[in-house]
Specification:
The protein is of the alpha+beta class and 141 residues long. 21% of the residues lie in helices and 26% in strands.
Length: 141
């Protein structure tokens, strides 16, 4: 009878310890501070690594890599826009600067500039023809 009591006590201790370990595992997987996809040992999968480039990236005017902002200042740029024109937004990407303009007695428009030197590459007029007489074209003239 003593052996049976000892066996029941040992099995009870093992059950309590097992339940405790399960609770600990759940809390470390899904509890506060655990980020999605992470386990106690680290990320669930290895991070994706881009393959190396086979050819070097083309150089941009003024040095650097195409698509990157120039390291040298480009100086002051003056856009040929009416005085009441407002810049309502700007985006930089692919070695281009896109300026969203409105007002000045003209329809809303987007002006495309080359980031390397600020040259006007063209514009896109939104909402109709140019009210100022000279329409913007893809060449910006």
């Amino acid at each position: 009878m003593k052996a049976l009591k000892a066996l029941v006590v040992v099995m009870g201790i093992l059950i309590v310890a097992g339940v405790g370990l399960v609770i600990y595992g759940v809390l470390t997987q899904f509890g506060p501070g655990a980020e999605e996809g992470e386990t106690v040992a680290g990320p669930a999968t290895a991070p994706a690594v881009a393959p190396p480039l086979e050819t070097p990236a083309p150089a941009a005017p003024g040095g650097g890599v195409a698509g990157a902002m120039p390291a040298e200042p480009i100086g002051d740029i003056t856009l040929d826009e009416p005085a009441a024109t407002e810049i309502t937004g700007a985006t930089v990407g692919e070695n281009r600067i896109l300026l969203r303009l409105s007002g000045g007695g003209r329809p809303d428009r987007v002006v495309v500039l080359r980031a390397a030197d600020g040259a006007r590459l063209g514009s896109i007029t939104l909402g109709g023809a140019d009210g100022g007489g000279a329409a913007d074209t893809a060449t910006g003239q």
